[in-house]
Design goal:
By secondary structure, the protein is mainly beta. The chain has three helices and 33 strands. The chain has three domains: about 250 residues, Beta Barrel (Thrombin, subunit H); about 120 residues, Thrombin, subunit H; about 80 residues, Beta Barrel (Thrombin, subunit H).
């Protein structure tokens, strides 16, 4: 869903909440409050609201560093900090007061603000992608919270000052030292670290903003809460994990009930049985088949106009419903801005982001998952490619997974050297690989070794699909 203002007509409220009589004057505007909303403590210190939650009453979570008074003046028989919503026209409205807070205890940084809204609705949505002219923002329903136990995931967030940004989770359970905002003493916090894509970065007004993972659920973007912004820096930020806040504060996250995303990992299969000429075929939304197993892809090298060329592997669907393609991990490893491009209708187009990368991890994995912008380009085409007798490339439907045996013949396709076949001469191979630009060597395990004779794959073919007549 998209919004053009914090003031939204009743029809929009009804579509979000599924409630109300519909008898209001259509010219009358309601106000809604959600994660990403600009707020001000004591009308002095501006921050960003995180997720809607419940602690003996509805309210929301944000950072304790937004407090103006010492510990938000959260003391017995004292009046705690009041919190205001900053509206589009710059006016402020009292929306609540601090009800609970922690700063430094168990490494935590949060406040829970109890809502006193009467004419406003708290909705379990977060602000997301904003249009180029900053007039329209998308709202994503929060369906649950998530604990990330490994790095490499794509993470998105929203700050009231600098808007929507995404990056890669770089570190988990990092201890940082920050100055206490009230007396300057040093305080230790336990946080996760995210590096941004691009040059944009956050400022103080963005502190407290929601951090989440986006999921494509059958064409609808939903979000899983991760935490809120605790500290900002040059091209990175730290966030406090929400599961720690909910547990310590005995707080319940408010969620929107949505249809669950698929819980089955599967290879996307074709809806037709015959091979098709690549140049003539279209996908379901009428666009050219922009990506398939064997497409040439370009991965942007951070802070440059250069790119690294590789080949797309097979299209897959993750357990949470996100659709993408696989490729080789070394194609994107160590890139801080892993946007992925391919040629569509003769133009170089941004088709996705590398959100999960493994290059010689402890299990010997070597792969990258590229999350595709399916809302722009549609689904990937569930095919590999091979030439027919006349040398014209044809789509070959992907029908199943197959584990080949020693001595069997397999074929592959690289976007530079094309279609090459060979014989498996070794299985379960462990090999060490060297890299350029001073990067360390890495070890990959459980590999197949294929003898292709005089013809072989080369630079730019990495990540390409391997298949047989039995399956991929």
């Amino acid at each position: 869903m998209k919004i053009s203002s914090k003031k939204i007509i009743p029809l929009f409220i009804l579509s979000l909440l599924g409630s109300g009589s519909g008898e209001k004057d259509p010219d009358e505007s309601d106000l809604v409050f959600f994660a990403g909303y600009p707020i001000s403590f004591e009308n002095q210190k501006n921050c960003t609201a995180a997720f809607i939650a419940n602690k003996q009453g509805i309210g929301f979570i944000t950072s304790a560093q937004c407090c103006v008074k010492n510990n938000c003046n959260f003391f017995p028989n004292q009046s705690a900090d009041n919190v205001y919503a900053i509206e589009d026209d710059g006016n402020v409205t009292l929306i609540g007061a601090v009800y609970d807070m922690m700063f430094g205890n168990n490494g935590l940084d949060y406040v829970f603000v109890t809502s006193i809204l009467i004419d406003w609705d708290n909705i379990p949505y977060t602000t997301g992608l904003t249009s180029d002219n900053d007039t329209i923002s998308e709202l994503y329903p929060i369906t649950s919270y998530l604990t990330l136990n490994e790095t490499g995931h794509k993470v998105c967030t929203y700050g009231a000052k600098n808007g929507y940004l995404c990056g890669l989770l770089q570190a988990i359970n990092v201890e940082i030292t920050v100055p206490n905002p009230w007396n300057g003493s040093l305080t230790n916090l336990s946080v996760n670290e995210v590096y941004f894509f691009g040059e944009k970065e956050f400022e103080n007004e963005d502190i407290g903003g929601p951090v989440y993972i986006q999921i494509d659920n059958n064409g609808t973007t939903i979000a899983q809460a991760l935490g809120h912004i605790t500290q900002t820096g040059h091209r990175h930020f730290y966030y406090t994990p929400i599961e720690k806040v909910l547990s310590a504060g005995i707080i319940e996250l408010t969620t929107s009930q949505q249809d669950n995303a698929t819980d089955v990992t599967e290879v996307k299969t074709l809806e037709w049985n015959d091979t098709l000429n690549i140049m003539d075929s279209k996908n379901k939304v009428g666009r050219p088949n922009y990506i398939y197993a064997g497409s040439r892809i370009y991965v942007q090298i951070s802070n440059t106009q250069s790119s690294f060329s590789c080949t797309a592997g097979f299209p897959v669907i993750k357990p949470n419903g996100i659709k993408g393609i696989l490729t080789a991990g070394h194609c994107v490893y160590k890139n801080n801005d892993p946007d992925v491009y391919t040629i569509v209708d003769g133009k170089l187009e941004d088709i996705g982001d590398a959100t999960k990368v493994a290059v010689g991890d402890r299990d010997g994995n070597e792969y990258a998952f590229i999350e595709l912008h399916t809302w722009i380009w549609g689904d990937p085409t569930a095919c590999a490619v091979k030439p027919d007798r006349n040398g014209i490339l044809q789509f070959v439907p992907i029908t199943s997974l197959y584990t080949p045996k020693l001595g069997e013949r397999v074929c592959g396709f690289g976007s530079f050297n094309g279609y090459i076949c060979g014989k498996i001469v070794a299985v379960d191979v462990t090999a060490e690989f060297t890299r350029s630009e001073g990067l360390p060597n890495y070890v990959a395990k459980s590999l197949y070794k294929v003898d292709t004779g005089k013809k072989g794959f080369g630079e730019g073919d990495s990540g390409g699909p391997i298949f047989t007549s039995e399956g991929l």
